[in-house]
Amino acid sequence: MPRPQKHVFVCTQARPPGHPRGSCSASGCGEVINEFMNEIQARNLFETIGLTNTGCMGPCTFGTSVLVYPEGIMYGKVKKEDVKTIVEQHLLGGTPVADLLVPAEVW
Ligand code: FES
């Protein structure tokens, strides 16, 4: 298996309803990770883009949280509609999507 050029981690943590921290599961992470998979499949990026679901990465109030390495870029409040932009602008184009970055005090 070749080492991916970029690796995308999508938080898929769930918590019980009413939990004070909320969760990325409650914020629609399922749609987000499915859309990343759709984009990777449609563009045949399996050998260059890694995709992994994770537990909580910390900034729960900014779910769905998405972390991209090797840069260590953290995106917050990511929706399904944002995935294509992240793929085209950051993963393929090399420029992080400024509008989706979590605040500096968060990450
Ligand atoms: S639940 Fe996703 S970052 Fe905490």
Describe the structure.
The chain has helices spanning about 30-40, 85-90; strands at about 5-10, 50-55, 65-70, 75. It has about 110 residues and is α+β, with helices and mostly antiparallel strands. Strands 2-1-3-4 form a four-stranded mixed beta sheet, covered by helices on one side. It is globular and about 40 Å long. The model has no long low-confidence stretch (mean pLDDT about 95). Bound molecules: FE2/S2 (inorganic) cluster. FE2/S2 (inorganic) cluster (FES) binds next to loops.
Quick recap of the structure?
The protein contains 2 helices and 4 strands; from the N terminus they run E-H-E-E-E-H. The protein is an alpha+beta fold.
Reconstruct the topology from this structure.
Elements: E1 6-11, H1 29-42, E2 49-54, E3 66-69, E4 73-75, H2 83-92
Parallel strand pairs: 1-2
Antiparallel strand pairs: 1-3, 3-4
Bound molecules: FE2/S2 (inorganic) cluster (FES).
Averaged pLDDT? 96
The proportion of residues forming helix, as a percent range, comes to: 10-25%
By DSSP (H or I, 4+ residues per run), the number of helices equals 2
Q: What's the arrangement of strands in the largest beta sheet?
A: 2-1-3-4
Features:
107 residues; alpha+beta; 2 helices; 4 strands; 22% helix; binds FE2/S2 (inorganic) cluster
